[in-house]
Amino acid sequence: MYNPSEYSLHADFKIYHLSDDLSSLYIRLYPNELLFNQANEDMEYRAMVEIEYSLFELGEDDGIIAKADSGKIEYKLLEKDKDRTAYFRASVLQIPSGKKYLMRFDTRDVQRGTVGLKHLFVDKSDPLSSQNFNVVSARSNYPRFLNYFSSEEIFRLLYRQLGIDTLYLDFFKQDRLMPRPQVFIDSPSEFIIEPDTTIALSYHGDSTILNLPERGMYHIRLDTSSEAGLSLYNFGPDFPQVKTEEAMLGPIFYIATMMEFNMLMQEKNMKRAVDDFWLKRTSSLERSRELIRIYYNRVLYSNLYFTTNREGWKTDRGLIYILFGPPDRMRDM
Question: By CB atoms within 10 Å of each CB, which of 86, 241, 243, 259 scores lowest?
């Protein structure tokens, strides 16, 4: 679940609840991960993908009670699809309301035999929860699978129920502070409950165009008496990736001394300072490049997995993931 490098296929999945009993499953495949050839009975240049899904009902403690449904979906990608960055499809599933589920997706390239595995939490217990909203790019008209945006991006926000004319938006400014040092066990890393701003938005269905102008977390609700809703993030144009010197410097906080980190913060040439920091750790340009690749891949996945009102790498779980890497095994607590 926390180590995508174990699999060759990395299909993405997203659920949008259309009604109490129907949900739309959005699927994104990456053609560059698939084998295209003519080794088939029709001599047709294509790739074949098979997706098996299992739907498990969860109990009050989020433990699996029983398998509620299962099925198989097959897609044929043609030559015209090979050079696409991504390939989108959607299917409508019957998922009863009032419960929570875990979906497992096993993806297989039929011609090459490579596989992928993903899990998706499905919440149909609350009509106000995040999966009752659908975020669609205003430019491409494709659904967004990740809830991260830059200030310039525009999107449409859909809610399943007709007749809604007002949404409430809570804005939490970006937390510019560094995370607490890992040796401080008596200083919990708290989630900020009170938003910096709350405004009422006029909502006109799929004709409503939105963007996230300031950096921080945006939480959209239909009901101010409930915390349930959809969270969207703006932590810069490259987030969750680590591309700039500033983004590379922050996570060094976990492995540098306070004196080293403060000196890095004062350097005028930050890129050279970051490069020198890693080179001193290895005394080898090749080894430092490999260490940088591993370390900042962990930062990337921490941002993907653990982001809340702050970047994922700044959270306690992000700290553990960055320092120790993906878990060897997981168990229910």
Answer: 259
